Amino acid sequence: MVMHYILVFAQGYRESWNIVSERSKADDLGFIESIVQRLATFKNVAPDDFSIMGNSNGAALVNQIAIETSLPHIRNYITGVSQLNAWQYDGKHFKAKGDQNQYHAVATPMKGKRLMNISGTEDKLVPYHGGPSKFIPANDGKLKFVAAEESIYLWAREMGYMGEKKTHPSSKTGGLEIFSYLNGDVVHYKVNQEGHGATRTVTEDQLMRFLKTEKTVVPQ
Residue 3's pLDDT is what? Predict the structure, then answer.
């Protein structure tokens, strides 16, 4: 029997991941990195082909890992219904969280990574078009978000894309509008008429195609 994927379902301390003002104050970056480093030592694990996926608060952690980690093992980052928030990207720079969740230090994400984001246009918790959430608290009021299409463009630019931000989807399928950069290595699924459950509208086949694609990050 050939094993293609080893799945690890990590649980955050206090059922939360430590982003901005969540309940948990744990070192989640260190926690996930320790899992990755341990698994990378096994002979039946490809040490440079890890994928990190999260939904909502978990997706916020995935973004933070992509911003801060220096581990070479992680290839793919997948975020469901949580694009970059305004603490992680302040309008000019990506930011490291820091020990006291101050997000003061400028961070430089590792290059050559592949990212997928899925967001719903009717999300009442994480606003698709950016701005403050109506419900998620932050240290300065309500947690503010970067617009979903701007967020994926920022990631594409960070990974080497030299063109303009896409104002129209690269393709459409059903209720999905797909914004693809760098030959599909950085991609955003805009799910029309869906809210905070938008991740479920992306099929397993679509997800697997992203995970199985050879890395071909070339500026375009």
Answer: 54
Average pLDDT score over residue span 176-205: 97
pTM greater than 0.70:
yes
**What CATH number does the domain containing 180 carry?**
3.40.50
Q: How far apart are CA 20 and CA 10, in angstroms?
A: 19
Q: Strand 114-120 and strand 106-107: pairing?
A: unpaired
Rounded Cα distance between 134 and 37, Å, is 38
Encoded amino acid at 203, one letter:
T
**What are the residues whose beta carbons fall under 8 Å from the beta carbon of 19, sequence distance 6 or more?**
57, 60, 61, 64, 85, 97
**Residue 90 forms part of a structural domain:** yes
Token couple for 151? 């967020």
pLDDT tens-digit readout, 1-23: 455 789 999 999 999 999 999 99
Q: Which domain holds residue 59?
A: 13-212
Residue 8 lies in a domain: no
157-181: pLDDT as tens digits: 999 999 999 999 999 999 999 999 9
d(CA 203, CA 209): 10
